[in-house]
Design goal:
The complex is a heterodimer of chains A (449) and B (272). Chain A has 449 residues and is mostly helical. Chain A is built from 25 helices and 2 strands. Chain A has helices spanning 6-9, 17-24, 46-51, 84-92, 98-102, 109-113, 126-130, 134-142, 144-150, 159-163, 184-192, 195-200, 208-214, 216-222, 232-236, 256-261, 265-273, 275-282, 290-294, 305-318, 320-327, 330-336, 345-349, 369-374, 400-438; strands at residues 30-35, 38-41. The longest helix of chain B has 32 residues, at 53-84. Classes of the chains: A mainly alpha (449), B mainly alpha (272).
Chain lengths: 449, 272
């Protein structure tokens, strides 16, 4: 960290601390040229100095040209004289950039580390960053990370956990930055790829990173380098990350459609108008939000067979009866065997714009049902659409024809097997006796001529 | 007995070829249809996958349906030809497949014989359970075939029929098929092949020939009637050659094995 021997900096005959404090211990000592009517204090508190990381250094280690007394204003202290590595790092990062240095106040060594009260780097906290980044730190303090940290959780992320060491900190627009859109998931993964960590902190989803990386969002980010594909912070927020049980969280159940809508605006417009969207907005328990069908971290391409088949089951978690009766039909059985070419829930009912059958906008409303069937059965007509895709043969009231035909078929089955079951059971012993009486001379085995 | 045993033709080549088509298409339809009916089971999914997935399975199912319609048409043609040729006793009498009062009587008598209350009935050309098998297939093809066609070409049939008939067709096709599969693989297999007197199989459907002793025992009324009418000698046959007996064994045991595996899967699923 520190280059050069501090002792060597103090030339023989140079001013000692005693010499300096002879004047600078005076609390009223101030430099001329008052700033906005206020003199700049040049008082040095010896106690603070002795408690600092530089306690063992003489004043001239930093104020190299100082003599006692001196009239001239001393030149600015250059920390790089000892900490040249840090200055080099600062030059690479955003804090040392020309733009940042031109800003007022510009990030200086003293701005973060202080002057006479300089502290070891490890003791700097979010409070230090707050001097300039007050808004971000405020958000952070109300976040799950900030609150956990405040509770004394040493594993909770601080500024540096995500942004890296302060000297080298890069803007999130920099492709090398740990918070750059395409790199952020890896940064979050430093902690959140560890299922043990999730367990320790009561986070329900353990393998988020692995799941995310395999999801459509994760692949788009890491494989295609798509800046518009969602990374962690697009859904969870950055400084303001909150637990999903927190009503203010972007991933709180009721807030999820809005969060997804930041990118999927068109889908959202359909969804809020749908029966599901309206029910969810009313706060109806069980009304599906985006993640119920699409999941959170395992979002897949909707064109893929695995998702298309799984989402049928997903619909069935609420629409149990509809799934059961669907499975009785050709459509339901073929999809159960893994073929997606036949009608699935959304093929008839729609997906985001789903409406009750009584609504004229519904794909299964009496006005639209024929054209819905025609998507797959081009020759279908009014009569064709009288097929009931969710008929229940057990429901005598709604489907009497089906009920009685089913009963007839079952009676036929039971009757036939009952009669021939008895017939066989009686014949078996009799036939056995017959065979034994005849002895082993099977007639069907004629000798070769 | 010395020398080769005397044999008689019971089934002609046409009968045997048609029954070969029945075996092939029936097993084919069962193997390709059951995965759909049992789509919720592991074996249903596995069988469908093994056959090339649901699309291919459906394709094969329709192929075997065509085989079925073909032999059904061939059989109807055969009946028409016999009828036009003025064959006597086709629709009534001892050689007819048509159920008659004597079949009921023989069934009752047969069941009395099972429990030792009387002698074995003297069957003519077709025993009552053989007639039942025949009509079961006949009825089965009509019912399963027509409901299957409905489901194959729904848009076409919806021009004449209301759409809810497809709901009925699903139930009828599926349940009647289960009845057919269940009946053939248990009752028909037992009656014809697996009952101790015939065990492990009766090869007559492949060889077409029946030994004189078996003829006299299983169809005594027919044997004596033919003898009396002087038609018996015309049916006399050589014993089935070795290749034919081996063919019967290979095809017969394969069909039996497939059927028994399928019925075991169905029953174990039903009992679960």
């Amino acid at each position: 960290m520190v280059s050069g021997a501090p002792g060597a900096l103090a030339a023989p005959g140079a001013a000692t601390a005693e010499d300096c404090l002879a004047c600078h211990a005076d609390k009223g000592l101030a430099r001329g040229a008052p700033v906005r009517g206020k003199a700049l204090s040049v008082f040095v508190d010896e106690a603070v100095l002795k408690g600092s990381a530089h306690a063992s250094l003489p004043c001239v280690a930093c104020h190299r040209t100082a003599t006692a007394p001196h009239d001239e204003r001393l030149p600015a202290v250059s920390c790089a004289g000892c900490h040249d590595g840090q200055r080099a790092a600062l030059g690479e990062g955003i804090h040392g950039s020309r733009k940042a240095q031109a800003a007022r106040p510009s990030p200086s060594c003293a701005g973060c580390h202080g002057t006479h009260d300089v502290k070891p780097a490890a003791s700097l906290s979010t409070q230090t960053c707050a001097a300039c980044h007050a808004r971000q730190v405020d958000l952070y303090r109300s976040s799950v990370h900030g609150r956990s940290r405040a509770r004394g959780d040493a594993e909770a992320a601080t500024c540096r956990s995500c942004h890296g060491p302060a000297h080298k900190a890069l803007a999130k627009s920099d492709p090398q930055s740990s918070t750059y859109h395409l790199i952020l998931p890896r940064t979050c993964a430093q902690c959140h790829a560890d299922p043990e960590l999730a367990k320790r902190h009561g986070i329900e989803v353990g393998a988020v990173y692995q799941q995310y990386m395999d999801s459509i969002h994760g692949r788009a980010v890491t494989r295609s380098g798509l800046l518009v594909a969602a990374n962690c912070s697009d859904c969870h927020g950055a400084h303001e990350i909150r637990a999903r049980t927190d009503a203010a969280s972007r991933v709180f159940r009721a807030n999820i459609p809005k969060t997804c809508a930041t990118c999927h605006a068109g889908i959202y417009r359909d969804y809020v108008e749908s029966i599901h969207g309206k029910a969810a907005a009313r706060g109806a328990a069980g009304a599906p939000v985006c993640t119920d069908c699409h999941s959170a971290h395992q979002i897949r391409r909707v064109e893929g067979a695995p998702w298309q088949l799984d989402v049928i089951r997903e619909c069935g978690t609420c629409h149990k009866e509809s799934l059961r009766t669907y499975r009785d039909t050709f459509h339901g059985k073929v999809t159960q065997l893994g073929l997606t070419r036949v009608a699935k829930c959304s093929d008839c009912h729609g997906s985001h714009s789903i409406q009750p059958a009584s609504d004229p906008r519904s794909q299964v409303s009496p006005a639209s049902i024929v054209s819905t069937c025609q998507q797959c059965h081009p020759a279908a007509g009014e009569s064709f659409a009288q097929f009931h895709p969710h008929a229940d043969a057990g429901d005598r009231v709604r489907f009497p024809r089906l009920y009685w035909v089913n009963l007839l078929m079952i009676s036929l089955l039971v009757g036939t097997f009952a009669f021939f079951g008895v017939h066989t059971a009686l014949w078996l012993p009799r036939s056995l006796v017959e065979r034994l009486r005849r002895g082993r001379r099977p007639a069907e085995e004629p000798r070769d001529p | 007995m010395s020398g080769p045993e005397r044999h008689y033709f019971r089934l002609n080549l046409y009968h045997r070829i048609l029954h070969g088509m029945v075996i092939t298409s029936f097993l084919g339809l069962a193997i390709t249809g059951l995965p759909l009916k049992f789509a919720h089971t592991g074996w249903g999914k596995g069988l469908s996958l093994a056959l090339g997935g649901p699309f291919t399975t459906g394709y094969l199912h329709r192929f075997f349906a065509i085989v079925t319609f073909t032999y059904f048409a061939l059989h109807l043609g055969y009946l028409a030809r016999l009828a036009l040729a003025g064959r006597h006793g086709m629709f009534w009498g001892p050689e007819s497949m048509v159920p008659q009062p004597r079949d009921i009587a023989q069934m009752v008598q047969h069941m009395r014989y099972f429990v030792g209350l009387g002698p074995r009935p003297r069957f003519d050309r077709w025993a009552y359970w053989e007639k039942f098998d025949y009509w079961a297939v006949f009825w089965g093809i009509a019912i399963i075939g027509s409901s299957g066609l409905l489901l194959w070409f729904p848009a076409f049939f919806s021009r004449f029929l209301p759409g809810w008939t497809f709901n009925l067709a699903i139930i009828i096709h599926s349940d009647e098929a289960l009845l057919a599969v269940g009946f053939i693989f248990t009752i028909h297999f037992f009656n014809t092949h697996l009952r101790p007197e015939k065990f492990p199989m009766d090869p007559v459907i492949f060889t077409g020939r029946i030994s004189e002793e078996e003829f006299q025992r299983d169809h005594p009324a027919e044997y004596e009637r033919l003898k009396r009418q002087g038609r018996l000698d015309r049916l006399q046959a050589d014993p089935p050659p070795l290749w034919l007996r081996n063919f019967a064994r290979v095809v017969g045991f394969t069909a039996l094995a497939i059927g028994l595996v399928l019925i075991w899967l169905i029953i174990s699923t039903a009992l679960r």
